[in-house]
Design a protein that fits this description.
The complex is a heterodimer.
Chain A lengths: L1 H20 L3 E7 L3 H17 L3 E7 L3 H13 L6 E5 L3 H6 L4 E2 L1 H8 L10 H4 L12 E6 L1 E6 H6 L11 H13 L6 E3 L2 H12 L6 H4 L13 H15 L3 E2 L7 H6 L5 E5 L3 H7 L4 E4 L17 E8 L4 H15 L1 H11 L6 H9 L2 H4 L5 H7 L15 H16 L5 H22 L2
Parallel strand pairs in A: 1-2, 1-3, 7-8, 7-9
Antiparallel strand pairs in A: 3-11, 4-11, 5-11, 6-9, 6-10
Chain B lengths: L10 H28 L2 E3 L6 E3 L3 H7 L2 H34 L4 H9 L6 H12 L5 H8 L10 H29 L3 H9 L4 H30 L2 H7 L11 H11 L3 H26 L6
Antiparallel strand pairs in B: 1-2
Helix pairs in contact in B: 1-12, 2-12, 3-7, 3-9, 5-7, 5-10, 7-9, 8-9, 9-12, 11-12
The chains are: A alpha/beta, B mainly alpha.
Main location (chain B): membrane
Subcellular location (chain B): Cell inner membrane; Cell membrane
Subunit structure (chain B): The complex is composed of two ATP-binding proteins (UgpC), two transmembrane proteins (UgpA and UgpE) and a solute-binding protein (UgpB).
Chain lengths: ~425, ~290
C-alpha cells in the first residue's frame, strides 16, 4: 500500500512538472555533441537554467554535424524548428543563403537587449561567421585550428633532437628523411586532409582558396586551389606518400589512432585533439604550430578554424528570442568560455576568456595548449585567411578527398588532381548559386 | 491446372486488395510521385524558393562523367554481390541438405548473420580489415601482402562486396534449403540407380528444379544490392577511395543529405527507379522463360 501511495505521488509530481515549466519560456537547442562534449554542453545548459528563472533551455542531441543540420532543415520545412541550431563551419554558406529561415545573431542580440559586444570576440574566430560588413550571423561555439603534434620519443629513437625546429615544411622534410632512414614506418600522418593541407594551407600562406574573397564577397565564387603554392605542397606530400614518409589512413581523423598508439612520429591534426592525445599517449608529446613553406606567399599568416557555430532560426516569439539572447550572452561570458576552452581544448571565442585562462596559469601547467590561440591570432586576418564561405562545401570536401587519394596512390599528378577537383567543385558551386539566387 | 476463385460481386475483391493498394499508395506511389515532381526543380534546402528547370537536373547528371561512371560501378558491384551471396548459399544448402544428423544446428547457425544489420556488418568487416588493427590485414601483412583498402580501389570494392554478401548468404541459404527439401526424392533415387553421380544429379536434376527459387533470389538480390547495401558502403568506404565504391544509391544520399541538393538527388532517385524497374522487367521477360515451375 505504501508503495502504491509513493507511486501515485511520483506520478503526480511528474505530471505536474510541465505545468511548473510552462511558467518559463522554453528555448530549444539542437546540438551534435556526444560523450564528454555532450556532458559539458549539458552542464552549461544546466548552469544557465539554474542561474535565472525566466527561461528554460532544452538541449537535444540530433546526431553528428551533418545529421543535425539535416534535422534542422527538415524541422524548418515542417514548421517545427528549434530556436538554436548547431551547424558546422562548412554549412555556413548554406545557412547564410537561407534568408527567411535564420535570424542573424547581431539582430537577436540587439532586439533582446542582452549584453553583446562584437569586438570582444577573437577576430579569426568570429570572422568565419561575420559578413564583410562586420555583422555577426552566428555565434561561434566550438572552434579549433590545425597544429603539428610531435611524438618526441619517436624522434629521439631515430636519433633526432626532439627540440629541433619544425616550424617550416623545409625543416620537417629533413626530419622525415631522417626518420625514414632510421627505418621508421610512419613518419607523418594527417587528419582532415582537405581542411589542413588545402584550406588552412591557403590561409596560412595568404593565397586564395577561392575567388571573391574565398566566397565572402559573393556566390559567383570559383575555386582557386589549383595554383602554384597548393600544387607544390600537394605534389611534395604525394612524393612523401610514394616514399613511405607520409602515410594515408583515411578521410577523417583515422590517423589519430595511429599517432596515439605511438606508431607515427608527426601528426597534423586539430588542436582539439588535445584531450584524446593527452589521455591515451604513452609517450612524450609536443604541440607545435602548423609548419609552413618558408618563402611561399606571406606565410605564416594565420590559420583558420574548424568546428561549429550556433544559428538562431526564424519563426519564434519575441519573448523566446529574448531567452535565446540571454543564453548566447551567457555562453560568451568569460568564466563559461574560459572553462570550455580549458575542458575541451577548443579555442576561446573571446579574448577575455583566453586572458583569464592565462592568468589562471592553465597554459603553464599544460604547455602547448596556447599554440593554437597564438597561431590564429598572430596576424590580422586577410581576405585569404578570414575563412571560407562556399556552398555545398561538405560535398566539395568529398571531391577534394577523392582527388587527393588519387595523388597519394600515385594515379594522378598534383596538378591534374587539383585541376579536376576545382572543375568538379565549381560545378557544385554553380548549382548552389542557382539554388540560392 | 490453374486454380481460380471467382467472386460474385465487386465489393469483396476490392476490399481484399484495399490494404495492399493503400500501403503501396502511401509508401510507394506518393513518394515516387514526389520524387518525379521534385526532379524538375532546383529548390533551396529550406524550401524557401524553388525554380523550375524541366529536364535540367537530368542534363546536369548525365553531363557528369562521374555519374556515368557510377553506373559501371553499380553494375559491377551488384553482379559481384549477387554471385557472392547466391553461390556460397547454394553450396551450403546442398551440404546441409545431405546431412542426416545435426542439420538443425547448422541451419540455425547459418541463418544468424542475417540478423546483423548492414551497418553493423560493415563495422565488423572494417575492424577485421582495418589497415592498422585489423586481424585479417595483419595476417595478410605477415604473408607479405600489403592490404590497403583506403587507397586501393579494387580492395575496397572487394571488401564492400564481401561485407554486403555475407549477411545475405543466410537469407539465400534459407530459400535454397527449403527448395532442396521439396525436390522429390524418387527422381533423384531413380537417377542414382541409373548411375548418375552426385554432381551430375545436381546439375541435371536439382538445379533445374530449383530454378523458380533461383530466379526469385536473383531478382531480390539485385534489388538488395542496389538499395540496401548503403549502410555497408557508408560505414566502410564512404564511396572511396576516389570513386571506386560510389554506387548510384550512395550518390543519391551524398547529393541529398551531404550536399542538400534535393533537385539532383530526386532526379537520381527517378533514374534509379527506372533502372531497377527495367532490370526487373528484363529479368522476367528473358530469364523467366528458362524457369520451370
Amino acid at each position: 500500500m505504501k508503495q502504491l501511495i509513493l507511486g501515485a505521488v511520483a506520478a503526480g509530481t511528474t505530471a505536474l512538472t510541465p505545468l511548473v515549466a510552462s511558467a518559463q519560456t522554453e528555448v530549444q537547442f539542437w546540438h551534435a555533441f556526444t560523450g564528454r562534449l555532450g556532458e559539458l554542453v549539458a552542464a552549461q545548459v544546466e548552469e544557465f537554467n539554474a542561474s535565472q528563472s525566466d527561461y528554460n533551455v532544452v538541449a537535444s542531441h540530433k546526431g553528428n554535424y551533418s545529421e543535425t543540420l539535416n534535422a534542422g532543415i527538415a524541422a524548418f520545412r515542417a514548421g517545427e524548428q528549434p530556436h538554436i541550431l548547431m551547424v558546422f563551419e562548412v554549412g555556413t554558406a548554406t545557412m547564410m543563403g537561407a534568408k527567411g529561415a535564420i535570424k542573424p545573431v547581431y539582430e537577436v542580440m540587439a532586439e533582446s537587449g542582452a549584453e553583446f559586444d562584437p569586438d570582444a570576440y577573437i577576430g579569426a574566430v568570429k570572422g568565419y561567421y561575420t559578413t564583410t560588413e562586420g555583422e555577426m550571423l552566428s555565434l561561434p561555439f566550438n572552434s579549433s585550428t590545425p597544429v603539428l603534434w610531435v611524438n618526441r620519443d619517436a624522434l629521439e629513437g631515430a636519433g633526432i633532437d626532439p627540440d629541433t625546429d619544425l616550424s617550416t615544411w623545409q625543416n620537417v622534410e629533413g626530419v622525415l628523411d631522417d626518420l625514414k632512414e632510421a627505418g621508421h614506418s610512419c613518419p607523418l600522418v594527417t587528419a582532415w586532409q582537405s581542411w589542413i593541407h588545402l584550406e588552412n594551407f591557403s590561409a596560412y600562406h595568404d593565397v586564395p582558396f577561392a575567388t571573391r574573397d574565398n566566397g565572402f564577397a559573393g556566390l559567383d565564387t570559383e575555386l582557386a586551389f589549383n595554383s602554384e603554392a597548393q600544387v607544390a605542397h600537394i605534389s611534395k606530400m604525394g612524393e612523401w606518400a610514394q616514399d613511405g614518409k607520409f602515410v594515408y589512413t583515411g578521410r577523417r581523423n583515422e590517423g589519430g589512432a595511429n599517432f596515439r598508439a605511438g606508431d607515427c612520429a608527426l601528426f597534423t591534426e586539430s588542436s582539439a585533439g588535445y584531450a584524446g592525445i593527452k589521455s591515451e599517449a604513452e609517450f612524450d608529446f609536443d604541440v607545435r604550430p602548423l609548419p609552413y613553406w618558408e618563402g611561399v606567399g606571406n606565410a605564416p599568416q594565420n590559420t583558420i578554424i574548424g568546428g561549429a557555430s550556433l544559428w538562431v532560426m526564424e519563426g519564434h516569439e519575441a519573448e523566446e528570442y529574448k531567452g535565446v539572447g540571454e543564453f548566447l550572452a551567457f555562453l560568451s561570458s568569460t568564466p563559461i568560455q574560459a572553462q570550455w576552452h580549458q575542458d575541451t581544448g577548443y579555442l576561446p571565442i573571446t579574448a577575455a576568456a583566453g586572458e583569464a585562462t592565462r592568468e589562471a596559469g592553465f597554459y603553464d601547467e599544460n604547455p602547448g595548449t596556447d599554440v593554437a590561440v597564438k597561431q590564429m591570432t598572430a596576424n590580422e586576418p586577410t581576405a585569404n585567411s578570414k575563412g571560407l564561405r562556399l556552398g555545398s562545401f561538405d560535398q566539395i570536401r568529398g571531391i577534394i578527398d577523392e582527388e587527393l587519394e588519387a595523388v597519394w596512390a600515385g594515379d594522378k599528378s598534383a596538378q591534374e588532381a587539383m585541376d579536376s577537383a576545382v572543375e568538379r567543385g565549381n560545378q557544385l558551386l554553380r548549382r548552389f548559386e542557382q539554388a540560392n539566387r | 491446372m490453374e486454380k481460380r476463385v471467382t467472386f460474385r460481386g465487386w465489393m469483396l475483391p476490392l476490399l481484399l486488395i484495399a490494404p495492399q493498394v493503400f500501403i503501396s499508395a502511401v509508401f510507394f506511389f506518393y513518394p515516387a510521385g514526389q520524387a518525379v515532381w521534385q526532379s524538375l526543380f532546383i529548390p533551396d534546402p529550406f524550401g524557401l524558393s524553388t525554380q523550375f528547370v524541366g529536364m535540367g537536373n537530368f542534363e546536369y547528371l548525365f553531363g557528369d562523367r562521374h555519374y556515368r561512371a557510377s553506373f559501371y560501378t553499380t553494375a559491377l558491384f551488384s553482379i559481384l554481390v549477387t554471385l557472392a551471396s547466391m553461390i556460397p548459399a547454394l553450396f551450403l544448402a546442398v551440404l546441409a541438405d545431405r546431412l542426416i544428423k545435426g542439420s538443425g544446428v547448422y541451419r540455425t547457425l547459418l541463418i544468424w548473420p542475417y540478423a546483423v544489420a548492414p551497418a553493423v556488418a560493415g563495422v565488423l568487416w572494417l575492424f577485421m580489415f582495418n589497415t592498422r588493427v585489423g586481424v585479417v590485414s595483419w595476417y595478410l601483412g605477415q604473408l607479405g601482402y600489403d592490404w590497403n583498402h583506403v587507397l586501393n580501389g579494387s580492395e575496397a570494392m572487394g571488401l564492400v562486396v564481401v561485407a554486403s554478401a555475407w549477411g545475405r548468404i543466410s537469407y539465400n541459404f534459407l530459400f535454397f534449403f527449403a527448395a532442396l527439401q521439396a525436390v522429390p526424392r524418387s527422381v533423384i533415387e531413380a537417377a542414382a540407380i541409373d548411375g548418375a553421380r552426385f554432381w551430375r544429379r545436381f546439375f541435371t536434376i536439382v538445379l533445374p528444379l530449383l530454378s523458380p527459387t533461383t530466379f526469385f533470389l536473383l531478382v531480390v538480390n539485385v534489388v538488395y544490392s542496389f538499395f540496401e547495401t548503403f549502410g555497408v558502403i557508408h560505414t566502410i568506404t564512404s564511396g572511396g577511395p576516389q570513386q571506386a565504391t560510389t554506387i548510384l544509391v550512395y550518390k543519391v544520399y551524398s547529393d541529398g543529405f551531404v550536399g542538400q541538393d534535393l533537385g539532383s538527388s530526386s532526379a537520381q532517385s527517378v533514374v534509379l527507379l527506372l533502372v531497377v524497374g527495367l532490370l526487373t522487367v528484363l529479368q522476367f521477360k528473358f530469364i523467366e522463360k528458362r524457369v520451370h515451375y
